[in-house]
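Entry type: protein chain
Record version: 2
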Amino acid sequence: MRHQQPKVTGCRSENTESMVRDIHFDVLIVGSGAAGLSLALQLPETLSIGLLSKADLHSGSTSWAQGGMAAVLHERDSIESHVADTLQAGAGLCHEAAVNFTIQRSREVVDWLIAQGVDFDLRNDQPDQEFREFHLTMEGGHSIRRILHSADSTGSAISKALNARINERNNVRILTDRCVVDLIVNNGATVGAYVLNTLTGEVETVGARAIVLATGGASKAYQFTSNPDGATGDGIALAWRAGCRVANLEFNQFHPTCLYHPKARTFLLTEALRGEGATLHLPSGERFMPRFDARAELAPRDVVARAIDYEMKRLGLECVYLDISHKPSAEIEAHFPSVLAQCESLGLDITKDRIPVVPAAHYTCGGVVVNRFGATDIDGLYVIGETACTGLHGANRMASNSLLECFVYALSAAEHIQSHLPEVMSESLPKWDDSRVRMSDEAVVIQHSWHALRRLMWDYVGIVRTNRRLKRAANHIAVLEQEVDDYYASFTITKELLELRNLTQVAKLMVACAQHREESRGLHFNSDYPRLQDQTSDTVLVPVNATCGLLTLPDYAASDQ
């Protein structure tokens, strides 16, 4: 069996073939998406920073973001309006303090991104004006145009700009092809992590005065998803095993419109299409969304996804259709070049043809409990981005608030880290010991368990749930968890095993949260409890190894401590 010490829970691009057996940083950032990169850039260059990525710096979800970022940018909009829209979309579960905190800093974030070299689209109907306004689009749940974008590849534009800036920093050491196995916690504080070099198979011991988890969500728990393969809930699982609370993991957002095509496994069709007038239709040509909501295609994502799911099940359909062909071709080509190109490569001309679409798992609205600085129950451990539960999203994330959240909480965490770093770094860390494990000759077990988990989550913990489905899911996951634990204890670890271990853990937490909520709210719809409760609260799960640090976070959305 694998042995660890008792009570231990577990720039320049580094040559991925080299071994880093024991290294220390002031700050270790796990994840290289928008949250992790922006945090590294916000921290002072006097600090040594380790930036870990599971693959390369472009492998996360940020590069996949099409639509844009919500922000209040002109006098026709207001903080109050954006807050009101977010609260409504969140179905009564948003923490208003967190919503106000985030939206009030939106202009500051936009200015910072522009300073990093991000080019956002400007209006082309103001060519003669000295200062042109941003071109803002509309998305579901918003009452006004406030979505800042770079064509339909905003995430890619942001990722490229931040990567260029990070490569200019001499204090940032980039470690690619690394997976964190477990965090090292001593006396209620993080002091380091065990890190697998996936190219060499070596487990490295990495010490840090502060650790930040920015690993994204857990949408790969589902058979159909818009997310890249790395979205396996790593940060949530790591924090939970270390002793942090998690909250609201029953709220898994399914994006209503992912391209349905055998050669397009995870291609998302941006919500901005519907913001610019695209409509949803049955194969007969009937437009069905007005039957479900007065806002039709611009209703929040949970409403649209459930409507599509209902119609597909009612009529036995494989997909429905998204149609923007009634808009001028030049307008489509200008605003949606990536969508146009992807569809053309599959034989679809969106200027003329309807686009086949289905819902797919897209965003994890819950996560690790944090305060407004991204601080967790454990001293020195921060969680930001999709991995965190800040109180912003409530029961349903409003479109394009996620990128905003990444940058706001990265900025806030950077401020807090600088003033709370311990003066002394722990130099003596327990070493990883795998002397009693062996190589596996049955890797097929991991592959089988991976597929089984994702299928059962789709079937039993999907857009519509029942008590019976949730119980079946819990029972199946318990069996899988035992198998994974036995495998982990006996065999040499791999990236695939670590991801399966983390995803199984998070799936179990998702089901537990869903079983706890005896109502239907936002993204969580249970046919056995179809109505809203008059009183509601967050679903908070507490691990058995939780520390006294819990007492410092009575209100994770608004706490200043």
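Comment: The longest strand covers residues 203-213.
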